[in-house]
């Protein structure tokens, strides 16, 4: 029996039956489960072969329940390369949620605004991304047993779900930008020169996650959509000092808009 099968069996025994939608919550974005009728939950460190969240502000729970008439499985806390994990660890939960049966994946993150027309507290729908992590979650022996090795990435974010999110934002008067997300390893924040570089290569926002999960979702032919909560403004000509607490505070302030978008999207999805 493979690691994935052991993990899935463990979760099914604890009530994680036939989820329809998977959700990954990013830094400071942990309140969506408050909206869920929770049927089962388990800490990451109890799940066989599951990584354990080592960042103190990531709670580290897998939650299963009802939200807007759908069965959802929620990652309350994700994994990052900067914690010392590899690409397989970071994306293992996506493979687990897919094997459990999800048909759609929703992803959120906290990011810095490279595009100076975007302001902290705003939301950005990710339209495309730039992988600056120095590797791929598909670069391992035997990857073709689980999906295509050479995955097409011409449209990594599902158009239909993205269009629905744009319509929901418009209907609710939520300012929603659309842009390109650059993923870097971290954990240090960027220098002024690095912010200039990111702007030159076309990034609108920068963060330390998401891209590996998106690549694996495409590998698994799992439709995925992602939004960034913009927590700081990355102006290299007037760069303000930023600490983790200020990022968390801004995430919490903007989170209700992200929750509104996700809830109405889930209600509108056919799975």
UniProtKB/TrEMBL annotation:
Keywords attached to this Swiss-Prot or TrEMBL record, sorted alphabetically, are:
Glycosyltransferase, Transferase
Q: Where are the transmembrane segments?
A: none
Record family assignment = Belongs to the PNP/MTAP phosphorylase family.
Pathway membership, UniProt: Purine metabolism; purine nucleoside salvage
EC number in record: 2.4.2.1
- Any single GO CC term annotated in Swiss-Prot or TrEMBL for this entry: cytoplasm
Question: Which Pfam families does the entry mention?
Answer: PNP_UDP_1
GO MF terms listed in the record are: purine-nucleoside phosphorylase activity
SUPFAM superfamilies attached to this UniProt entry: Purine and uridine phosphorylases
Q: By its UniProt entry, which InterPro entries does this protein fall under?
A: Nucleoside_phosphorylase_d, Nucleoside_phosphorylase_sf, Pur_Nuc_Pase_Ino/Guo-sp, Purine_phosphorylase
GO annotation terms (biological process): nucleoside metabolic process
What's the protein here called? Purine nucleoside phosphorylase
Function field: The purine nucleoside phosphorylases catalyze the phosphorolytic breakdown of the N-glycosidic bond in the beta-(deoxy)ribonucleoside molecules, with the formation of the corresponding free purine bases and pentose-1-phosphate.
Q: Which domain of life is it from?
A: Bacteria
The Nucleoside phosphorylase domain sits at: 21-267
NCBIfam families cross-referenced by the UniProt entry: PNPH (TIGR01700), PNPH-PUNA-XAPA (TIGR01697), PRK08202.1 (NF006054)
């Amino acid at each position: 029996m493979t690691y994935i099968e052991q993990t899935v069996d463990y979760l099914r025994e604890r009530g994680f039956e036939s989820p329809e939608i998977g959700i990954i919550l990013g830094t400071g974005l942990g309140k969506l489960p408050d909206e869920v009728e929770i049927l089962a939950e388990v800490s990451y460190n109890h799940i066989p072969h599951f990584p354990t969240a080592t960042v103190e502000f990531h709670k580290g729970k897998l939650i299963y329940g009802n939200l807007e008439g759908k069965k959802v499985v929620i990652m309350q806390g994700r994994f990052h390369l900067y914690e010392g994990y590899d690409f397989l660890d970071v994306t293992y939960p996506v493979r687990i949620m897919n094997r459990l049966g999800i048909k759609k994946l929703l992803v959120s993150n906290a990011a810095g605004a490279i595009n100076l027309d975007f302001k902290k507290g705003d939301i950005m729908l990710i339209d495309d991304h730039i992988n600056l992590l120095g590797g791929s979650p598909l670069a391992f022996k035997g990857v073709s047993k689980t999906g295509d090795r050479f995955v097409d990435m011409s449209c990594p974010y599902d158009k239909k779900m993205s269009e629905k999110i744009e319509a929901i934002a418009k209907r609710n008067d939520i300012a929603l930008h659309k842009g390109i997300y650059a993923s870097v390893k971290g954990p240090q924040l960027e220098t002024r020169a690095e912010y200039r570089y990111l702007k030159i290569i076309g990034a609108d926002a920068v963060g330390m996650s998401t891209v590996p999960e998106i690549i694996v979702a495409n590998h698994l032919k799992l439709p995925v959509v992602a939004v960034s909560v913009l927590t700081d403004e990355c102006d290299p000509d007037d760069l303000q000092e930023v600490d983790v607490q200020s990022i968390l505070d801004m995430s919490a302030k903007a989170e209700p808009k992200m929750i509104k978008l996700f809830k109405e999207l889930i209600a509108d999805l056919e799975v």
